[in-house]
Fold:
Amino acid sequence: MRSLLVIHNQATAAQRLESAASGHHLPESVMRSCGYIVTTAQGEAQARERIAEADALILDLPIPDIQAWSRHVLEWKVVPILWWCSDATATLSVEACEDGVMADGVLSASMQPPEIHWTLQFGAKQCFERQQWHLERRQLLAKIEERKWIDMAKGILCEVKNITETEAYDILRKQAMNERKRLVDVAASIVNVYNLLQEQKQGRTKR
Structure:
């Protein structure tokens, strides 16, 4: 991990100038002194353009801005996201961190180069684990959704054909094989057709 992108916005621009003038180190100067290649971006347009070359992202932003920026960034590229903690960004109470703030680590000017290095490495590991968790969650939700359609289709077949659930499942499986479709697609078709027929039946009854 060598290339970093520091993001700040208009709201923190004046504070950054004040910090630099008073001798406080900005994240880009600290990271460059540790041997990293650093670019900066102010605003979404610059960030989107420059993130392609970045191995990690440092948000020099107040806590309330972190969540929205994290969502934007992950739509462009999966990278470790670290928050730069300073007098300018840490102006809120600790309770602000409980609002679903997503960051893979925290950096500050008081850290020594080895601490910064390992924070970035652990942040990369945290990022990978977070992405793996999101992937597994999506897969689990997809399986639950598929099971819902299959169970509904089995229930319909049991009712219409007066058969057991095992027999209904066998019918679904054989139809899926014959039509070279996924089991869930066959099940969804059966449920949708059944619901359509029920709606038509109810419409005729009302007349």
